[in-house]
Design goal:
The complex is a heterotrimer of chains A (266), B (260) and C (259).
Chain A lengths: L1 H4 L1 E2 L9 H20 L4 H6 L1 H11 L8 H32 L8 H16 L2 H12 L3 H25 L3 H9 L4 H35 L8 H9 L3 H29 L1
Chain B lengths: L14 H18 L4 H16 L9 H33 L7 H16 L2 H12 L3 H25 L3 H9 L4 H35 L8 H9 L3 H29 L1
Helix pairs in contact in B: 3-4, 3-6, 3-8, 3-10, 4-6, 5-6, 6-8, 7-8, 8-10, 9-10
Chain C lengths: L3 E9 L5 E10 L4 E5 L6 H8 L7 E6 L2 E2 L5 H7 E4 L11 H6 L8 H5 L3 E2 H13 L15 H14 L4 E5 L7 H18 L2 E5 L3 H7 L2 E6 L2 E6 L6 H7 L9 H9 L1
Parallel strand pairs in C: 3-9, 3-10, 6-8, 8-9
Antiparallel strand pairs in C: 1-2, 1-4, 4-5, 10-11
Helix pairs in contact in C: 5-6, 6-7
The chains are: A mainly alpha (266), B mainly alpha (260), C alpha/beta (259).
Chain lengths: 266, 260, 259
């Protein structure tokens, strides 16, 4: 067929390399397997375009001005939850990072145990933990902060451990040669070297947590998410747009600020 | 000894100031959020007992869970595919060295940043409202949200492509598409695959909770059993979700390791 | 095949750097011209004006009598091959695909996206690889080759364009002396056999003297010498490599003594 078209791929025999063919077939097979299960239906997708446009049209109403102060309070709560949870997680994951890094862990058993604990903590999404914690300690920002901090330790600990593992050995040996102890070695030799990496990771996590905190309210774990769902369920479109816009604004501001800071630090 | 040069004045070390400011802010937050440590301590004592209730998972409905799990993974796969298509089309315009002009650059950047900023659950809520319940709005929401991330990652990788290679393809008379296809993507293939795997991993995690807003998957089942205090079934569901997500985490870490 | 006319070309960059200060040159079709000059003299800028990678602030450049403008950029670049100091191959693609990049001007949008090429283009690329003696490496990844081999792939890519002019920007600056010799001979042979006009930037005076039909000396954006290699004596070399503000340049003296 390719010869009649007078076209070919730039390979020895004119057909794509086996690796590319296998990859394409694999991806295509996965998509085909997934399509009925995910109810992928392009007709329905196309058919829902008018509904989407109508929905967006309904969003574009005069915002409910009286709601704005409350929106501000809720947004502040979201930011506070993010900051608190990230701070708690930061304090907890620093020691965790040293225990879970191959080159600083006191014992292989400790290394494997902390690695597994970290995987377990980050495996489930914040919302699942928020569901669990809400049913344990009741509604409010507390279960939200707990869920966020819990999952964040899982991620941060892993990232920290990975940056510690690639630390340059020479300064560490230099400090060790002067007879430094276990803890001294970690604070004077490892910490300064991984600091830029840590700051970058923390900024990235802060960013991620703000997005997560914005939806925790969905299950009653505090923050703007609750208002969002209620506005949606009660068809309060005059609130939905300000909520969406304020999330967009805060997330984008943090995104840009952390991008700038990261570039400065690294 | 007496006439050695005096040490210059010790520079001011701002760390204690920042540290105390940080603690003060945290304290204010704790007060503002009404978090009482008493309640927390009491809650912690209780929490052991609480988690004890999950001790006896009930797997009698396993076949239904597995079906929901398959739907969750399928939703994530299509969400990632949608994201990949959009990111593939937008990223070259959002990379400073490959874009067609300052306006195209700005527009592509803003679209990507808007998609990133919209939480996927909010998008899922909106799509469910517009097109009805089911995993399709879920995968669409995942696709839109993660296209923003993937597009940004791709654009940043493309910006690191050797300018000489780009110039070489321009110098043979290549147009924009050809520069992107022959100098851009081949140079970042590995990185791009790594990012896609990472996003796939993330989407499986998110797809597991999309059910909360009616967008399919296993999340709704967990929500229902937790609300009805069926701890045995909740425990089974959490175990199934946990096993799947851990498996995906290992799989994608292993694959990314292979790519390097 | 095509002569190059450079008429009062001036280039001032956005940062204020005045790279070219009114250069005039008429480069004959099928000739081998070497541009000599110290770093920062404007050699690269001069070359890049010819295929429109830079646009002159003033004056113009014409190829076979046709001015290079933003409108005909793609046609001009299709006719002009370029060889780079750092080869600028796409590392992850095969040698063959890298050479086929030279045929991109003939490919449709869809063909480019799918990496599909015409059989004629494959034949042209094959022939180009044969010319540089690398046919047996066709299916290897470009980054697995040595520096000299990579540069020959770069030349094959230019040849695959079926160009009328080849620009070579410091083609041997990253290579060892023996490989440099090979590459220069290859370029010379291409000029002779195919009648392609070659414009080459060099910083090795001896290579320039042995291979060029004509040498243009640039210093601080001005042409300070333009003539046959035999006319290049110590005084003219001194004017080419003269450094601003240095009255008695001992380094220059000792370099010239061995030139």
């Amino acid at each position: 067929m390719t010869s009649s078209l007078n076209l070919c791929w730039p390979t020895r025999n004119g057909v794509p390399p086996a690796a590319a063919l296998v990859t394409v077939a694999l991806v295509f097979g996965l998509l085909l397997w997934a399509a009925p299960r995910a109810e992928i239906d392009f007709v329905r997708l196309a058919g829902s375009i008018p509904a989407m446009i109508e929905f967006v049209g309904r969003l574009l109403v005069m915002p409910d001005w009286d709601y704005l102060p409350e929106l501000g309070v809720k947004m502040l709560e979201t930011i506070e939850m993010t900051f608190l949870a990230t701070s708690i997680a930061l304090v907890l994951s620093l020691p965790f990072g040293f225990l879970a890094a191959k080159n600083t862990s006191p014992h292989p058993a400790v290394f494997h145990a902390s690695r597994s604990a970290l995987s377990f903590m980050r495996a489930l999404p914040e919302l699942v933990w928020a569901l669990v914690f809400v049913s344990a300690v009741g509604l409010g920002p507390l279960p939200g902060v707990m869920a966020l901090a819990f999952v964040t330790v899982g991620f941060m600990g892993k990232f920290f451990a990975e940056s510690i593992e690639v630390v340059d050995r020479r300064p560490v040996e230099g400090v060790a040669a002067h007879g430094a102890g276990w803890l001294q070695l970690r604070t004077f030799a490892h910490l300064p070297q991984v600091m830029p990496d840590f700051i970058g990771t923390t900024l990235y996590i802060l960013d991620h947590n703000l997005r997560a905190a914005a939806i925790l309210g969905l299950v009653g774990a505090g923050g703007i998410g609750y208002d969002m769902v209620m506005a949606m369920r009660l068809f309060d479109y005059d609130r939905l747009l300000p909520i969406a816009l304020s999330i967009y604004l805060v997330v984008t501001l943090l995104d840009r600020a952390s991008d700038r800071l990261r570039r400065k630090v690294i | 000894m007496t006439n050695r040069t005096p040490l210059p004045r010790k520079p001011f070390n701002p760390t204690p100031v920042w540290l105390s400011a940080w603690i003060a802010v945290l304290w204010l937050i704790v007060v503002d959020l009404d978090i009482s440590f008493q309640a927390l301590a009491w809650g912690l004592a209780d929490i052991g007992e609480y988690f004890g209730r999950y001790g006896d998972p009930d797997f009698s409905d396993l076949s239904r869970y597995l079906k929901l799990l398959a739907q969750t993974i399928a939703t994530a796969i299509w969400g990632t595919f949608f994201a990949l298509v959009v990111a593939f089309a937008l990223a070259p315009f959002a990379a400073r060295n490959l874009t067609t002009g300052p306006r195209a650059y700005r527009i592509a950047r803003e679209i990507l940043s808007f998609m990133r900023a919209m939480p996927d659950l909010l998008l899922a809520l909106i799509f469910v409202a517009a097109m009805g319940l089911g995993p399709l709005p879920g995968s669409l929401a995942l696709g839109v949200h993660t296209a923003g991330f993937l597009g940004k990652f791709f654009a940043e990788s493309l910006e690191r492509v050797d300018p000489g290679v780009i110039e070489a393809v321009r110098a043979v008379g290549g147009d924009h598409t050809q520069v992107v296809m022959y100098a851009g993507w081949p140079s970042i293939l590995r990185e791009a695959l790594g990012y896609t795997l990472y996003i796939m991993d993330r989407n499986v995690r998110m797809a597991a909770v999309l059910g909360l807003v009616g967008a399919g998957g296993i999340g709704l089942a967990l929500h229902d059993t937790l609300r009805l205090f069926k701890y045995d079934e909740s425990a089974a569901l959490i175990a199934v979700i946990l096993a799947t997500l851990l498996a995906f985490d290992y799989l994608s870490t292993w694959l990314r390791g292979k790519l390097q | 095949m095509a002569n190059i006319t450079i008429n009062q070309a001036e280039k001032r960059f956005g940062n204020g750097f005045h790279a070219l200060k009114g250069v005039n040159a008429e480069i004959a079709s099928g000739s081998f011209t070497v541009v000599l000059g110290p770093s920062g003299a404007g050699k690269s800028t001069l070359l890049r004006l010819v295929n429109g990678l830079e646009t002159p602030t003033q004056g113009h450049v014409a190829l076979a009598g046709e001015a290079v403008t933003p409108a005909n950029l793609r046609t001009v670049r299709g006719d002009v091959g370029m060889v780079f100091q750092h080869f600028n191959l796409v590392d992850r693609l095969s040698v063959m695909t890298n050479v086929l990049v030279g045929r991109l001007k003939t490919r449709s949008w869809l063909g480019s996206v799918l990496y599909l090429f015409k059989r004629e283009d494959m034949d042209i690329a094959h022939e180009a690889l044969d010319r540089v003696g690398l046919v047996e490496k066709s299916w290897e990844r470009a980054d697995r080759l040595s520096g000299g081999q990579q540069q020959r792939v770069g030349i094959a890519r230019a040849l695959a364009q079926r160009p009328r002019v080849i620009l070579a920007d410091e083609p041997v600056a990253s290579l060892d002396p023996v490989t440099s010799e090979e590459i220069m001979q290859l370029l010379r042979e291409i000029c002779r056999r195919d009648g392609i006009t070659l414009l080459v930037n060099l910083h090795q005076v001896d290579l320039a003297k042995r291979f060029a039909d004509r040498i243009i000396g640039l210093n601080a954006g001005n042409v300070v010498f333009d003539g046959a290699p035999e006319q290049l004596d110590r005084a003219t070399l001194a004017s080419i490599y003269h450094r601003e503000g240095v009255v008695h340049d001992e380094q220059l003296e000792s370099v010239l003594a061995y030139a």
